Amino acid sequence: MQLSEGVEWGAHCAVVLAMLPDGAALPAGRLAEYHGVPGPYLAKSLQALMRAGIVASSPGRRGGYRLARPASAISLLDVVDAIEGERAFFRCTEIRRRGPAAVAGRANSPACHIAAAMWRAEERWREELAAVNVEEIARVVAEGVPPVARAKAEAWLSEVLASRG
Amino acid sequence: MQLSEGVEWGAHCAVVLAMLPDGAALPAGRLAEYHGVPGPYLAKSLQALMRAGIVASSPGRRGGYRLARPASAISLLDVVDAIEGERAFFRCTEIRRRGPAAVAGRANSPACHIAAAMWRAEERWREELAAVNVEEIARVVAEGVPPVARAKAEAWLSEVLASRG
What we know:
The structure is a homodimer of 165-residue chains. With 165 residues, chain A is mainly alpha-helical. In chain A, 55% of the residues lie in helices and 5% in strands.
């Protein structure tokens, strides 16, 4: 069981958008270029983030994607749920209600103990991801980034924003 | 992202095997019958549990699957890892090292903050599943099972074990 690559891409895009100057936006193609990932696939991830209200897009020469709400109000869980959907990892098909020992549904205890444990573990996973927000990630990334990488990123961004007028 | 059905089947099989009388074993076909699931698919899950040292099988008329170690020493995480493999949910492809701001690997901070948060969440999930063992599940199931289901299960098992001589 693995998360799709779109989760990694979406999270990195959200962090980059959190670092943009006020009023700036980046089109999907530029975000793909920055991350070295395939544009058409990244576009799908960005559309999923848009449907979830994490990013917004504007048309025109200076248009593109920006965060739709403050970075502090976007958790890593929001990004994961936007890309993956909110389906539970564990799907209980109630196999205890099949076979020779099956009884009518109402006679069973409310939740299978196996399913309950699986869902409890999932809840721990979600809680941990809900506790991390994009603003915090952007701050740690900004603090930890090597000076040479920061300089390259800033040069690239200046050039991109200047070229858009 | 979803766990395969084999996780549910494998966990239920482990719980049933934990409830067998001493020395008894059940063949894959009987476990499939008990759970109302397709035999050939369940056989694959059982083989995965065997490779992981969770169940063992013996040949012959009274042979079949049994637990390979005490139920208290088999966690729900052991079952999940056996069926799903131990791959992390989140695969970090180090996209921060691509694109126009990329710098040589050694210049980067040890772990991307996004990956670190994803892996921390996964660790919480694993901890929770590691804390639940098959003996405990079997005990809760035995306590909570409706009397009519228990009677049906016991009748089925007696008949199966008797038919095997």
